[in-house]
Write a structure and sequence with these properties.
There is one protein chain. The chain is an alpha/beta fold. The chain has a single domain, classed as TIM Barrel (Alpha-Beta Barrel), CATH 3.20.20.150. Helix content is about 40%, strand content about 15%. It is built from eight helices and ten strands. The protein has an eight-stranded parallel β-barrel with strand order 1-2-3-4-5-6-7-10, surrounded by six helices. A two-stranded antiparallel sheet has the order 8-9. The chain is globular, with a radius of gyration of 18 Å.
C-alpha cells in the first residue's frame, strides 16, 4: 500500500508548494483537488498550462497523484443542476486522463439541495436511486472513453450508504470502470468499538475486489469524526483486512490539519 493524504489538507494554490508539503509531512501519494492549482474543484475548463504545472509539481516533489476529486450532487432533485455537474465532471475526467491519474472520486449525492454531503429523508427512495444511477451511467460513458476509473464512497448521508449498496450499483452499471473508495469512518455513525470493527470487517469482505482506494478517517462513538488513530476505528485490523483481500492501492488520510499530518503519517506507516 502507498500512504497518501488529501492535497487540500495543505494551504495554497500552487501545486508545487502543496505537493512539497505533502512530501515533507511524510506522504508519497495524494488525492488531488484542482483547488490546489488555483481552480474551482469542478471547473469549466483546465488550461494546458495548469495541467503542465500540476504534472511538473508531481515530478519535482516525487508525490504521485492517486486520484482527482470530481464530486458533485449526483442525486440533486433539479436535473439542470445534475447536468451542470456532469459537464464539469467531464472536464475533471479529461484532466485526470491528461495527467495519468487513474481514479476520479465521486459523491453519490443527496436530495438535500444545500449540501451534497448532508442527509435527506428522501435519499432512500427508489426515485433518488434512479436519478443517481442514471447520472452514474452517463459519468461512466465519459470515464470509459477517457480510460479512467470512477470511485464511489459509501457515506451515511448519501444515496450509497454501505458496501452492499456500492456493489449493487456496480452490478447494475456493468462497468469495470466503477470502483469503491472505502472509508471506515463513513460506514457507521454511532457504534461501540466492537460494533465498528464488525461493520468495517463486513464491508471489506463485501467490497473485496472492487476497492480502488482506502481512506483513513476516524470517528468517535458519539458520531463525531476524528483524526485517524484518535477514535474507535481499529486501524490495525482495518489495514490487516485490506491486505488479506489483496488490496495494494493508496491509503489516503483526510479530515485532519496540516499540523497533525506528520504524526498521522507516522501512525499509519507503522501499520503498513
Amino acid at each position: 500500500m502507498r500512504l497518501g493524504i488529501f492535497a487540500k489538507t495543505f494551504p495554497g494554490t500552487d501545486p508545487a508548494i502543496v505537493l512539497a508539503a505533502v512530501k515533507q509531512a511524510g506522504y508519497e501519494t495524494t488525492q488531488f483537488n484542482l483547488a490546489c492549482a488555483g481552480l474551482p474543484s469542478m471547473p469549466d475548463a483546465v488550461s494546458a498550462d495548469a495541467i503542465a504545472s500540476i504534472r511538473a509539481a508531481a515530478q519535482s516533489s516525487g508525490v504521485s497523484l492517486a486520484a482527482l476529486s470530481g464530486t458533485y450532487n449526483m442525486a440533486h432533485p433539479d436535473r439542470a443542476v445534475r447536468d451542470d455537474g456532469l459537464r464539469r465532471l467531464g472536464v475533471v475526467i479529461t484532466t485526470a486522463a491528461s495527467l495519468g491519474i487513474p481514479l476520479v472520486t465521486l459523491c453519490t449525492g443527496s436530495r438535500n439541495i444545500a449540501d451534497q454531503w448532508a442527509y435527506h429523508p428522501e435519499n432512500a427512495t427508489p426515485s433518488a436511486w434512479c436519478d443517481m444511477a442514471a447520472e452514474m451511467g452517463k459519468a461512466l460513458a465519459l470515464a470509459e472513453d477517457a480510460g479512467v476509473d470512477l470511485g464511489i464512497e459509501p457515506e451515511q448521508a448519501n444515496i450509497v450508504t454501505s458496501a452492499s449498496d456500492a456493489t449493487r450499483l456496480i452490478a447494475d452499471m456493468r462497468s469495470k470502470r466503477l470502483k469503491i473508495v472505502l472509508d471506515p469512518a463513513n460506514l457507521f455513525e454511532y457504534a461501540t468499538p466492537d460494533e465498528a470493527r464488525a461493520i468495517v470487517a463486513a464491508a471489506i469482505d463485501e467490497a473485496a475486489g472492487h476497492i480502488a482506494m482506502a481512506h483513513a478517517k476516524d470517528r468517535h462513538g458519539d458520531g463525531r469524526f476524528a483524526t485517524a488513530g484518535q477514535g474507535i476505528v481499529d486501524f490495525p485490523d482495518f489495514v490487516a483486512r485490506l491486505k488479506a483481500v489483496g488490496f495494494d492501492g493508496a491509503l489516503v488520510t483526510h479530515g485532519l490539519s496540516a499540523d497533525e499530518a506528520p504524526d498521522v503519517a507516522a501512525f499509519l506507516r507503522g501499520l503498513l
